[in-house]
Specification:
There is one protein chain. The protein is mainly alpha-helical. The protein is about 40% helix and about 0% strand. A two-stranded antiparallel ribbon has the order 1-2. Helix 1 runs antiparallel to helix 3 and helix 1 packs across helix 4. It is globular, with a radius of gyration of 19 Å. It binds protoporphyrin IX containing FE and calcium ion (2 copies). One calcium ion binds next to loops. One of its GO terms (biological process) is response to oxidative stress.
């Protein structure tokens, strides 16, 4: 249903406008790429890629964005989409959906960071709903077992290999200390530190996160070696005990996922190929077309109140 040339007649500069807006923002705010890629993931996992995550709550509706799992999403991703949408509305008002704008923004920022292009199909409509309860049980959490994580990805149609490729997104971006602090302080009876960590790496993290309870904004790079470059360093790190989240370490620790970690650590081209294909699949999950959605004029609110 979606096509790569959807805006060819109605908004031929769609892609260039998005690219300009998000790369400008990325240059001034280097956290933009990670923030936007994660925002796209969080949109697509709940009701498909329909910009449901972008809507803000009001006094009548607590929106998806205010679900616990979405609260840490960085404002930079929302802002990148708002800027691109603002520029699009000037050029071709009422034409480009927020869902397409977010997809194109994520696509572009992956490429700008050195990653692969995935086939970007367009024509998504924006959701008519966004509820804070919708994300329940839809997301992998760092505290989950690998079986639970696999179950979530399988339920969305992804194989274990596709899941390992997608998590390679952790080659860029940040995680807050509270997402991995249990691995550093009082891990269990026999050790303060999770033995899956490389000891020097863990010591560095411990220092970095020393005051995280007082300053909840404290965060660490997901990939400590090349934090802003989209490459296969994430998988190389996993093999050295430098996976930040417990689920990152488990990708190497679990025999179901380790073979793919090894493959991607050794072959960046293969990672890029598989990541691109899995992103293509993620980007068309349950998309809404025709009258099942609308083209919002602002990404943070519905055109007409639907409740
Ligand atoms: C096992 C599966 C996954 C788990 C448990 C997981 C969990 C997390 C957590 C807890 C954070 C840190 C959030 C914060 O503290 O602000 C994070 C960051 C991030 N995740 Fe994942 N994630 C998973 C898979 C994915 C996938 C499939 C993608 C994209 C395709 C993705 C993209 C990102 C990005 C780009 C960041 C950095 C965000 C930023 O810099 O603002 N993650 N992830
Ligand atoms: Ca969604
Ligand atoms: Ca990297």
């Amino acid at each position: 249903q979606l096509t790569t040339n959807y805006y060819q007649k109605t908004c031929p500069k769609f892609y260039d406008i998005v690219r300009k807006a998000v790369t400008d923002k990325q240059l001034s705010t280097p956290t933009t790429a990670g923030a936007t890629l994660r925002l796209f993931f969080h949109d697509c996992m709940v009701g498909g890629c329909d910009a449901s995550v972008l809507v803000t709550s009001d006094s009548f509706n607590k929106a998806e964005r205010d679900a616990a799992v979405n609260l840490p999403l960085s404002g930079d991703g929302f802002d990148a989409v708002a800027r691109a949408k603002g520029a699009l509305e000037l050029e071709c008002p009422g034409i480009a959906s927020c869902a397409d704008t977010l997809a194109a923004a994520a696509h572009n920022l992956v490429i700008a960071a050195g990653g692969p292009a995935f086939e970007l199909r367009l024509g998504r409509k924006d959701s008519l709903e966004s509820k804070a309860t919708d994300p329940e049980n839809q997301f992998p959490l760092p505290t989950m077992s690998m079986s639970e994580v696999i179950k979530i990805f399988t339920s969305k149609g992804f194989s274990v290999q596709e899941m390992v490729a997608l998590v390679g997104a952790h080659t860029i971006g940040l995680s807050h200390c509270n997402q991995f602090s249990q691995r550093l302080f009082k891990f269990n009876k026999s050790s303060d530190i999770d033995p899956a960590y490389n000891p020097e790496y863990a010591a560095g993290l411990k220092k970095l996160c020393e005051n995280y309870t007082k300053d909840p904004s404290m965060s660490a790079f997901n990939d400590v070696i090349t934090p802003t470059k989209f490459d296969n360093m994430y998988y190389k790190n996993l093999r050295k005990g430098m996976g930040l989240l417990a689920t990152d370490s488990a990708m190497f620790g679990d025999s179901r996922t380790r073979p793919f970690v090894d493959t991607y650590a050794e072959d960046e081209n293969k990672f890029f190929q598989d990541f691109a294909r899995a992103m293509e699949k993620l980007s068309v999950l349950h998309v809404k077309t025709g009258t099942k959605g609308e083209v919002r004029s602002r990404c943070d609110s519905f055109n007409t109140l639907s409740y």
